[in-house]
Design a protein that fits this description.
By secondary structure, this protein is an alpha+beta fold. It has two helices and three strands. It starts with 20 loop residues before the first strand and ends in a 7-residue tail after the last helix.
Length: 102
């Protein structure tokens, strides 16, 4: 697949504090949430998680492109769900009240 699918945020991540980051992908739409609030959206995604395939080049905290920098930060509580979470579910995940068990 040529090109890259990108979801740009409407603001930068703050430095020196924890930020809840969530991405929901479904139906060709990608949504980026920061602290439970939608901060970016792409309505024309071409890539799906399945297209990433089984590879040793899928990373957390960096791109597959070696020219891109690593994340200068820490990750905690990484989760994958089998469905795209709704805005309400992402907000409840951030608030610590999310009870989905899938």
């Amino acid at each position: 697949m040529e090109g890259e699918d990108v979801i740009d945020a409407d603001r930068a991540l703050p430095t020196g504090e924890w930020t809840h980051v969530a991405v929901a992908l479904g139906g060709g739409v990608g949504r980026l949430y920061l602290d439970g609030v939608e901060a970016g959206r792409n309505d024309a995604l071409m890539m799906t998680p399945l297209l990433l395939g089984r590879t040793q080049r899928n990373y957390l905290g960096r791109s597959q492109n070696v020219k891109h920098p690593w994340l200068a930060g820490a990750l905690d509580d990484f989760r994958l769900y089998g469905v795209a979470l709704t805005a309400e579910e992402v907000a409840s995940l951030r608030a610590g009240t999310f009870d989905r068990w899938e």
